[in-house]
Each structure stands twice: as structure tokens, then as C-alpha cells.
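Hey, resending since the last one bounced:
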Amino acid sequence: MPEIVFFDSDCEPALALLGGKCASLVSMTSAGMPVPPGFAVTTEAFDHFVADTGLRTEIDGKLAELDPDDVACVDRVSAEIRAAIESREVPEAMQGMLHRAYDELMARFPGEVPVAVRSSATAEDLPDASFAGQQDTYLGLTGYPAVRVHVRRCWASLYTSRAIIYRLRNGIPEHDLSMAVAVQKMVNARVAGVAMTLDPANGDRSKIVVDASWGVGELVVSGQVTPDNILLDKVMLTPVREHIGDKHAELVPGPDGTLMEHPVEPARRAVRCLTDAELTAVATLAKRAEKHYGCPQDIEWALDADLPGGENLLLLQSRPETVHSARATAPAPAASTPGFSFPSSLLGR
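The C-alpha cells again:
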């Protein structure tokens, strides 16, 4: 099984090899959707790493000590496992493959560009469970040394306290668990957000809800910024109701790719951050993802400031909506809550 898979390769989007996030990125790329280029460090690499370094026995031993009702015990075991993973050196042959893949990705651009390094567990984004936010994502990384370190940190985040507790509470076994990692061009987001192909307030599948804010969307996910919230008719793609959020701050990449928070001037706070044409494009992309996967989707998107209009809308992630989509019929439509903040995160989790 390959340890490196580029999103635009002919590889099947297998969950066991790629994890939920990378499998989705490979599938969307194959379908011709506008996904930022990148590659997956597959579960095969992680499995070899934990086996060849003796970590598997150590991890299993520490998990055996776990008392799921003792939060302090979970935190201690989590910290010990993560420290063990982050302290082990990646085998030389694996480092060589990762370095070559990074160089191949960088060769697609005029110069070195920042990347996002994103966790992709095999149990995430399943139809009956969502792992959004359970593992780690790192943004704005430049250079192979930073990528190497943060791939290992993503591996370690398989054992965050919240991820361990989530698996215990949902009966997800450890023995088939593994972690892939996405290494992907960092989007220079002028505007970013999420969209659901149903109304999350009531499950109405005749609607699309779009949340949007200036810059990268992490401030929306953390609750620090209230985004614009627009409810659209799914057929006509016309707004039914909209709420203009405060959007008082934005995250933008600095010269070295590091994200920096800046205040948004009052004039931009008071207006919708998407034009009518951009809003229609986002809704159309969300519908396309729903058609591709055959069920309601929760997508992450961004408008890349480095790309021309008409080519700048990028699909960052698409996962099944897990609350209402299993129901046979949607309830009668009702008004959504203005400024609804989605649980998924931008560029990543």
C-alpha cells in the first residue's frame, strides 16, 4: 500500500488508506471539483511508524491503564501518548518519501508556498458520527522541516483527550484506528466560510445555508467573529433571509505564511462579504458536492485572493451532515437562527 498519495492521482478514495478528510479530497479532485492541490501521508505510513518505532506496544499499554470516568487519568494518558509519538524520529526512508512529495508539490508553483497540514483519521466524517475538531490542523507552514514536524503532531493528535473520550463514548474501537495526514496548498482566503445543503435549524432540504466572513474562517469556528448568515432557496439559489454579521476581525496570511489577526474596518463590517455572484457560486458548489456524495453536505470553501474572479472559489472539505440527513423527510420549514455558527472548522478539522 502506498505511503504517499497525491490528490490528483488515480488512487481510489479508500477510507482505510486515506482517512475521512483525505478520502474526500481525493474523491472531490477526481470529480473535477476545485480542490487546492496536495497529497496524503497515508495510514500505511502511520502504521509503519508506530510499529517500527515500538510505539504500538507502548500506546496499547497506556490505553489499558485508562479510566474513562477519570478526566485527569484521560488527560495524563493522552499527554504521555502524544509526547511519545512526537519524540520518536521518523524512519529515514519515510522521511525521504515525505521530502520528495513536498518538493514535487512545491514544483507546481513559481516558488515555495505555505501549506496546511491536516489530520485525517479513519473514523472521522462517518455517516453516523462526526470527528470534526477532534484532531489537529496546522496552517501557514513553510518549508519541509516544519511539515515533517507537524505531520508527526497530526499523528499524535489521534490521541487528544477529546478524541479518546469521543471514541469511548461512541463505542469506536481502537484496533482498526489509524491516521492519515493531508499536506495541502494553503489558501490565501479573502473570504471563507461554510455551507450546508439543508437548513440546520430544522432539516429543511429545500434550503442552503451559507456562513461567510472576511479572511480565513478560524475566527468564525472559535466563536470570536459572527459571520454573515444567508438562507437560500436550493432551486432558485435566491436569498430567502440574510443576517449581516459583525465580522470585526479577520485572519490573513503574513509574508511568511503565518496567520495574523487584523481588525476589519467599519465599512466592511457593515456589508455582506460575498457579492450576489459569489454567493450563487458557493451555493452551486454546495449543491454539486451534495449530488456527488448523494446526501446533504457540510462544506468548507474559500475565495483565494491569488486567483482571478471566476476561478477563485475553492472547495476545502465536504462531509456528510450528521444531524438531519438520516431522517426520511424534513420537518416543515422554519426560520433559521441568524448568525448560526457551524461546528466544522475552516481548513481543516
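The chain has two domains: 4-185, 189-320.

Sorry for the duplicate.
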